[in-house]
């Protein structure tokens, strides 16, 4: 079954199991995830070691998708190899669905799939989507990912930026520092815009 058809077709029943699928791993990146935090005097630090999950961009030779491979299975998936994948599930309430890798998912090495340069670029873009530089005054009109840059100032709120999880700990801006923040998503919270 083609990848696009799999992700865009509503299953016959809620308990349907998707068929095995033949995919080529175009790119794979590791993503650290903190398991727990310690908070002390308005600072947060990672308390437990980070999990190393991987996000893989895959293709069937006609379309692309990405999925997360959790810590235990991440070493079994290598960039540049093809696999027959069984035991996965589909996540989501309506198309397009997301491939969900579970502890029951099996990866079997397989024959390579011919992949065009265009599909490779498309798959790699799934892992690092475009984030256009946007002036702060124009941010409220943006629906896609955006990049903002400017100087950290005191008492002159130009924009509220809320960083989550690992990024909130890794970034400690100083007064007067020039920052460039990428891959932000605009969200309206309580009538106030927060990036």
List the helices and strands and how they pair.
Elements: H1 3-8, E1 21-34, E2 37-40, E3 43-46, E4 50-59, E5 64-69, E6 82-86, E7 89-91, E8 98-100, E9 106-109, H2 117-127, E10 132-133, E11 146-151, H3 165-170, E12 178-184, E13 187-189, E14 192-194
Parallel strand pairs: 10-11
Antiparallel strand pairs: 1-4, 1-6, 2-3, 4-5, 6-9, 7-8, 11-12, 13-14
List its traits.
mainly beta, OB fold (Dihydrolipoamide Acetyltransferase, E2P), 2 domains, five-stranded antiparallel sheet, three-stranded mixed sheet
Task: Provide a descriptive summary of the structure in words.
With 195 residues, the chain is mostly beta strands. The chain starts with a helix and ends with a strand. It has two domains: 3-127, Nucleic acid-binding proteins (OB fold (Dihydrolipoamide Acetyltransferase, E2P), Beta Barrel), CATH 2.40.50.140; 132-194, no CATH class. The strands form five sheets. A five-stranded antiparallel beta sheet has the order 5-4-1-6-9, with helices on one face. A hairpin with a 6-residue loop joins strand 7 (89-91) and strand 8 (98-100). The chain has three helices and 14 strands. 12% of the residues lie in helices and 38% in strands.
């Amino acid at each position: 079954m083609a990848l696009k058809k799999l992700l865009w077709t509503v299953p016959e029943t809620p308990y349907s199991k998707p068929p095995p699928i033949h995919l080529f791993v175009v790119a794979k990146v590791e993503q650290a995830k903190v398991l727990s935090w310690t908070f002390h005097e308005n600072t947060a630090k990672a308390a437990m070691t980070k999990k190393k999950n991987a996000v893989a961009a895959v293709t069937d030779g006609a379309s692309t998708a990405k999925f997360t491979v959790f810590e235990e299975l991440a070493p079994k998936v290598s960039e540049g190899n093809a696999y027959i994948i069984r035991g996965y599930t589909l996540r989501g309430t309506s198309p397009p669905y997301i491939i969900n890798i579970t502890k029951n998912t099996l990866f079997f090495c397989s024959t390579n799939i011919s992949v065009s340069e265009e599909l490779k670029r498309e798959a790699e873009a799934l892992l690092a989507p475009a984030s256009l530089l946007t002036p702060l005054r124009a941010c409220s009109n943006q629906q896609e990912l955006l990049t903002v840059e400017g100087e950290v100032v005191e008492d002159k709120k130009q924009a509220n930026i809320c960083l989550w999880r690992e990024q909130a700990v890794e970034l400690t801006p100083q007064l007067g520092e020039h920052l460039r923040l990428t891959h932000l998503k605009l969200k309206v919270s309580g009538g106030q815009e927060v990036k």
